């Protein structure tokens, strides 16, 4: 009979296989950087939420606010005092998304990405260490470019234009290539946030996010290996606890609702930032970061 320790070790190893597979795609599918322009390109925006405050839902649906007595116990957010990963994050895409009428500042973007990478530790530091490592490698290589001339490369657009100007933007090791793959990773994370509440298990949410984002850039072997990690994904309850700042908050009425509300606010901003970068690549380099079916 398997002991809890042996099960945990097997689960961690399996999950490490998943994230290692994701990193392998960076090398195996490097040719996809110069993918054909997708004329049916659509922006990445999460669906309209069914969760959230009654007031917010009413505004989205353009209907009157229903009686507060209809709120489900322990599901609606009654208090904003219960912090979580998304409300306490030191650098948030929420702030960045308010300035998307201007070119994205390189330093601000990288700070937000570094802060988001801490999420992997919240979920499972040992299991997700490979994907965090790959995520941070993308960040570091873009930062290396930025540090060569902070003024010249103060925006992501400036980096892409400079490398495009000397036909280096699709080369392995270019900051533009690293930005492309980092954005794909961000879209995967955004899709994950978009699926956690609705899917019955955390693994189901991971699978849905994978299929909606980076799966298309993986070969048959990588796609097949993905199913190996099914039993390694933590439960939804454990995953949500990972986003908690004060463990005592998890049992409080409305905490789950507050967590989802915060997650969706953060994710909508993350999605907008990803869409902005996608549009930039499309406009400046005729590159589609993420191909999607026509809407």
Record the SSE blueprint.
Layout: H1 4-28, H2 54-61, H3 85-88, H4 93-96, H5 106-117, H6 119-124, H7 129-148, H8 156-165, H9 175-195, H10 202-212, H11 220-226, H12 236-241, H13 255-285
Helix pairs in contact: 1-7, 5-7, 7-9, 8-13, 9-10, 9-13
Helix count, DSSP H or I runs of 4 or more residues: 13
Query: What percent strand?
Result: under 5%
Instruction: Report the helical percentage.
Output: 55-70%
- Helix-strand pattern, N to C? HHHHHHHHHHHHH
- Average pLDDT confidence is 78
N-to-C terminal Cα separation, in Å? 50 Å
Task: Describe what this molecule looks like in 3D.
The chain has 295 residues and is mostly helical. Helices cover 56% and strands 0% of the residues. It contains 13 helices and no strands. It has helices spanning 4-28, 54-61, 85-88, 93-96, 106-117, 119-124, 129-148, 156-165, 175-195, 202-212, 220-226, 236-241, 255-285. Helix 1 (4-28) packs parallel to helix 7 and helix 7 crosses helix 9.
Quick structural overview:
This protein has 295 residues and is an all-alpha fold. The protein has helices spanning 4-28, 54-61, 85-88, 93-96, 106-117, 119-124, 129-148, 156-165, 175-195, 202-212, 220-226, 236-241, 255-285.
Provide keyphrases for this structure.
295 residues, mainly alpha, globular, disordered N terminus
């Amino acid at each position: 009979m398997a002991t809890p320790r042996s099960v945990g070790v097997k689960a961690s190893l399996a999950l490490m296989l998943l994230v290692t597979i994701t990193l392998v795609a960076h090398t195996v599918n490097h040719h996809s950087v110069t993918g054909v322009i997708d004329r049916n390109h659509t922006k990445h925006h999460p669906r309209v939420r069914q969760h959230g405050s009654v007031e917010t839902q009413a505004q989205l649906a353009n209907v009157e606010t229903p009686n507060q007595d209809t709120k489900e116990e322990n599901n609606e957010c009654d208090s904003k005092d219960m912090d979580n990963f998304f409300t306490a994050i030191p650098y948030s895409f929420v702030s960045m998304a308010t300035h998307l009428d201007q070119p994205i500042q390189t330093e601000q973007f990288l700070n937000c990405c570094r802060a988001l990478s801490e999420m992997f530790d919240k979920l499972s530091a040992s299991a997700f260490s490979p994907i965090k490592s790959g995520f941070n490698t993308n960040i570091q290589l873009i930062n290396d470019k930025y540090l060569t001339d902070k003024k010249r490369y103060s925006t992501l657009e400036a980096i892409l234009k400079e490398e495009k100007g000397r036909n280096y933007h699709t080369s392995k090791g270019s900051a533009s290539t690293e930005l492309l793959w980092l954005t794909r990773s961000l879209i995967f994370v955004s899709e994950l946030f978009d699926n956690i509440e609705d899917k019955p298990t955390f693994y189901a949410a991971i699978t849905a996010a994978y299929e909606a984002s980076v799966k298309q850039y993986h070969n048959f072997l990588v796609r097949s290996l993905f199913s190996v990690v099914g039993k390694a994904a933590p439960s939804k309850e454990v995953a949500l606890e990972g986003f908690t700042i004060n463990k005592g908050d998890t049992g409080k009425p409305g905490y789950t609702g507050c967590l989802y509300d915060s997650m969706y606010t953060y994710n909508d901003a993350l999605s907008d930032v990803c869409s902005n970068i996608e549009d930039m690549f499309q406009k400046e380099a005729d590159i589609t970061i993420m191909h999607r079916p026509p809407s």
